[in-house]
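dumping these here so i dont lose them again. two proteins, back to back, each one seq then structure tokens. dont judge the mess
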Amino acid sequence: MTSRLNDGRDPVPFEEWDRPRGEWLLSGECRRPGDRSLLLEMTTRAVFPTVLVFSLYLLLVGHYGPGGGFSAGLVAGLAFVLRYIAGGNADFGAVVSPRAPVVIGSGLAVALVTGLVPAAFGAPVLSTTKLAADVPLFGPVELQTSLFLDVGVYLLIVGVVLDLLRALGDGIERDMDDAGEAL
């Protein structure tokens, strides 16, 4: 049995008419049709960038209060968890190409350097100061140096979430595949 035509050329089998044809829908390999939720996949495509932008907002605005980097990292991590739930390992690998240990190490390095730099100038470790600059298009811009520590914490939390998804998700998908083969 055939359904609608594929660009007016050859008929598409009925079982495959709803499979994605463009890379903007799904990247990489497609999950088994029985394991997919098209509504969740399409909603995730719309929500994922918005949640990441919100996490950057929390990172930039939260540096005046405690925990801006941590809360922003958790929100970004939840965006990656949602992306993983919607698309599985194949879709997740297309979104996140850096290795999780590199992200974790970068976050630790940024946080460590940010914490120790004040000691080089005779200030206590982890002390903060305000930097001000006059940017031509924006005007005067002020920045707290604690933002750099928050960026390090942000990278660390996102890296840990990515590593957990990689480690736990591979095991879950392997068990699902084994259960599917047994049936």
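---- next one ----
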Amino acid sequence: MNALVLVFSIVLVAIGATLVMDLWTYLLKRLGVATLSYAMVGRWAGHLFKGRWRHAAIGQAAPVGGELYWGWAIHYGTGLMFAMVLVIFAGEGWLRAPTLWPALLFGVVSVLVPLCVVQPAFGAGYFASRTPAPLRACLRSLATHGVFGFGLFLSALALAEVRGFA
């Protein structure tokens, strides 16, 4: 697979997987489950550019211009980064013949980023320890990242099918 096709494939898999995750989040919202507003991701990034990494509570930090748009861009950029890392570890052959377990395992392991980086930076503590229900928050994050991993697999499988690899 040439470099341009590889990059394009990773981008398509990332977009597909992130969309699957977004559909899951939409379903949770419809069921009345509180989910992350990507505006808070954009707000955090806006403050990060001003030199502030950590917040006591990101929701109480001053809003930044375009925070919702920045948040969504960062969300999809993170999906792209994660898809790229998966392909680096699983190999580009995985894109030709995707299997569930590497993608699902990667999705589950990727939950360490929000639990150990994002949540502490937002003021929620490591593993959501400063939230009213840390275990529930961690399990919700784990499920969401598991869905992302499943989305990586589904997207790669669909792409392989379209390209005639499957």
